[in-house]
Every structure is written in C-alpha cells, then in structure tokens.
Amino acid sequence: MDMNFSKEDLAFREEVRDFLAENLPQHLRDGARRTPGVFVEPDIGMEWHRILAKKGWVAPHWPKEDGGTGWTPVQKFIFDKETALAGAPSLAILGLRLVGPVICAFGTPEQKARFLPRILSGDDYWCQGYSEPGSGSDLASLKTTATLDGDEYTVNGSKIWTTHAHHANWIFALVRTDATVKKQAGITFLLLPMDQEGIEVTPIHSMSGDHEVNAVFFSDAKTSVENRIGEEGAGWSIAKFLLENERGGSCFAPRLIQGIERLEELAQTQPSGVNGAIAHDSRFRDRLARAKLQAEALEFTELRILAELAKGRSPGPQTSLVKLLGSNIGQEIDTLRLELLGTDALQLPLERPLYGNEAPEPIGSEIAQTAMGKYLNSRASTIYGGSDEVQKNIIAKTVLGL
Ligand SMILES: Cc1cc2nc3c(=O)[nH]c(=O)nc-3n(C[C@H](O)[C@H](O)[C@H](O)COP(=O)(O)OP(=O)(O)OC[C@H]3O[C@@H](n4cnc5c(N)ncnc54)[C@H](O)[C@@H]3O)c2cc1C
Questions:
Q1: What pLDDT sits at residue 2?
Q2: Are 77 and 197 in a shared domain?
C-alpha cells in the first residue's frame, strides 16, 4: 500500500518502532506466534496490555478525555500496523474495544469513573454475555430475564459461547426486562460482577481442544441498578453500537498481510515435489497474491472507517464488509499454511500453552506444531461477531439497498 505519510506521521512511526524494539519482550512475541487459539490467553495478553497502559497507549480508540491517546486516524493505523509487524499479542477486545467504548458513549460520569480506569489498568477482565442457546444470529429473541426490585436486578437464564468467562471478573449482558413490548424494545444492557453465587461458568472445548468459550448460567444473580448502562429498554441500540465496534474500526488487515508474508517465507523452504520450492509454483503464487491483494484492499476500507470515526460518526455498516472479508482472508491464510506444510501439519498437540518452558517439543517445526490448531480454530471466525450470512444480509439491506 502506498501511503504518503506526512513528516509528523513518519516521526510517529519511528517513535512506535523504537518503543516496540525496547518494550515488546521476545517471550510475548513467541507466545503470540505459538498460540493456536482464536484469543490470546491473559498471561501474555495482559502483560502486553499493562506495558501499553503504562505508556498511555492501550486505548487508542477511546476519547482522549476518557483515557484515549488523541491520535489521528493515520496514527492509529500506523500503531496497529507496527504492532502487527512486530508480532505483538492481540489485546483482549472485551474491555478495551467492546464495553469500554459503550461506557465512554453511554455511561454516567460515575460509571465512567468506576469502570474505565480499571479497564485501562487491566484490573478488570470482561466477558460478553450476548448469545444464548437459540439466540445467536437472532439476538433480539434473547430470553435471559432481569427484574428490578428496589435498587437491585435479579437475573435468570443462560448465555453461551462466552469467551474467557473463566478469566473474567465482570460480564456485560443483554437481558430482557420487558416481555410485553416489541422484542428489541424490551432489552436492557447490564454489567454484573462474576464473583457471586448466582453465576456458574462451565467450559466448552473447541474441536482443537482449546478452552476459550463457556456457558454461563444465571440463577438469581444480582447486580445493582447503578450497573445498568442507559435506560431500561435502551439495550438494543447500545448492543448495535457495540457490534459495530466488534466488527470493525480497528485495523486487522496488517495482521493478515503479516500472515501472508510469513507464508511467502515458508513457501521458500517447502519442496513442491516437482519444481524446487513451492514458492515457484504458479498456482500457489496465484492464491497467495490474490489473498495479499484482498488484504491490501481491506486496509483501505479500514482507513476509511477510521476517518469516519475521527469525524465523530459511528463506523456504520462497512464494518460488516471488514468482518466478512477479514475473516475469510484469515481462513484462507490458515488453509494455505496447512497445504504448504503437507504431512508435517498432521499433528494436534493438546497440551497448553505451546509457548514457555513447559511447552512440548514441536514435531518438525514450531510452525507445524500450531498450524492444525490455528486452522481448526479459525473456522469460528466466520461465525462469531455475526456469521457471514448475517453480514451479507446487513450489506444487502444497508449498503446495496436490497
Ligand atoms: C469462538 C467463538 C467465540 C464467541 N464468543 C462470544 C462471546 O464472547 N459472547 C457472545 O455473546 N457470543 C459469542 N459467540 C457467539 C456468536 O456470536 C454466535 O455463535 C453467532 O452470533 C451465531 O449464532 P449461533 O451460534 O446461535 O448460530 P445460528 O444463529 O443458529 O446460525 C446457524 C446458521 O444459520 C445461519 N443463519 C442464521 N440466521 C440467518 C439468516 N437470517 N439468514 C441467513 N442465514 C442465517 C448462520 O449464518 C449460521 O450458518 C462466540 C462464538 C464463537 C464460535
């Protein structure tokens, strides 16, 4: 991508590079690279979070007055790109990208003062209670109830696929507070402390053997009315605001491009069986080039979204495009990696973590050790945050006007 950065932007890029060279430890780069899961575990993710928080760089997408960086869209882009190129772990989005911006936009001054500093410092770890059995794509049909008695809500029901609920001390949840009105109008956005008798978390293991998601059961779980964001019944608009942030508004193209560049290096070392290295195989090069072009085109879309956000507008339905393209390119990268590795990739170690002193020795190479896990886990990316079909419906309606 040909970006004509200004002198200030180039100086900022140097600042970010210097910071990464000095402050991103090798064990965090190794941990990120050797994580087959969808999400980075808190042991490495939160260590990186705290390093960035100390520098004041952990929440570039928040308003400056709430703890954001005040960077321009181009600076945010540069930061995302440089951290991806350096191989930094992804940060947990649940607090920083999901509930944090919701509290910034809809929270009272008291809620902001209570929750935002603890997200920034990493003292609170959040999980997202949206999906329920039977209410995923059709989220508005959710059934978990909350009833207000005095100044306390009592919550009953269950949530499913709740990422990192087993690590979290808070959950933000969509609950039904009125069953007599249109289904969207009866939904409320509540924050609940996880450490209470009325909440039970049970693990769900993915087909790669990873434990990242859970079922969460609420049996007379309690939360104070002070932990309600917005008015009763306003939860649906807040939910949509949050989903737009979940689907876009950050640059994940740089990570995809970095993934493709690693494949290019790997292709130089893998024999094609006929004509030297696979890197010389024209059909393989075609697929790689196609993925790279798509990732570069995605980068432009992400920049356009950042520009919209900088004008104070919401990211809008183009985030559905980003989610759709980004997850499909990511899956193609994971598929190409498997194909490149051939039989070397036919291994699925179940020990975790695959980094650090206790990690099992890789069979063949380190990249082969995690390739199958990455491939299996990335099947989820076209489901979570709204499946491909749901994104296509949104694009059809709001972008194409069908
Ligand atoms: C790894 C992972 C992590 C997740 N983390 C969280 C989390 O932290 N918190 C949370 O709340 N949820 C989480 N989810 C849940 C996720 O948001 C849902 O799985 C997703 O919204 C799809 O819902 P569903 O699983 O109920 O599938 P369904 O909605 O039952 O969909 C089944 C199939 O039908 C298709 N379909 C559904 N409706 C339509 C339609 N109108 N038109 C065309 N096709 C349609 C879908 O595309 C899909 O192929 C996670 C999921 C995964 C896989």
A1: 45
A2: no
Could you tell me if 279 and 289 are in contact, meaning their C-beta atoms sit under 8 angstroms apart?
A: no
State how far the Cα of 336 lies from the Cα of 349, in Å rounded to an integer. Answer: 20
For residues 366 and 344, the answer to whether their CB atoms sit within 8 Å is no
Catalytic residues: 246
Of 104, 16, 38, 83, the closest CA to residue 251 belongs to 83
- C-alpha 136 to ligand 1 mean position (Å): 5
Q: Rounded to whole angstroms, how far apart are CA atoms 51 and 263?
A: 29
Polymer length of the chain: 402
Name the DSSP class of 135.
Answer: B
**Contacts (Cβ under 8 Å, ≥6 apart) of 40:** 31, 32, 89, 90, 91, 92
Q: What is the CATH number of the domain that holds 61?
A: 1.10.540.10
Residue 134 structural domain: 126-233
The string of DSSP letters for 336-366 reads: HHHHHHGGGG------S-SSSTTPPPPSS-H
The pair of structure tokens assigned to 189 is 């956005």
Domain end position, chosen among 176, 210, 233: 233
* 170/229 Cα distance (integer angstroms): 14
What predicted TM-score, i.e. pTM, was given to this entire model?
Answer: 0.95
pLDDT tens-place string over residues 241-262:
888 776 655 678 989 999 999 9
d(CA 243, ligand 1 centre) in Å:
13
- Report the atom number in ligand 1 closest to the C-alpha of 165: 8
Give the count of beta carbons closer than 10 Å to the beta carbon of residue 301: 18
Q: Which ligand 1 atom lies nearest to the CA of residue 212?
A: 1
Closest by CA position to 65, among listed 103, 8, 13, 122: 103
Work out how many domains the chain is built from and give that number.
3
Alpha helical stretches, state H, 122-234? none
Whether 75 is covered by a domain: the verdict is yes
Residues 101 and 205 occupy one common structural domain:
no
**Ligand 1 centroid – CA 226 distance (Å):** 30
Strands (E), 92-177: 126-129, 145-149, 152-160, 170-176
Contacts of 311 (CB under 8 A, 6+ apart): none
Task: Read off the pLDDT of residues 300-316 as tens digits, 9 standing for 90 and up.
Answer: 888 888 777 777 777 77
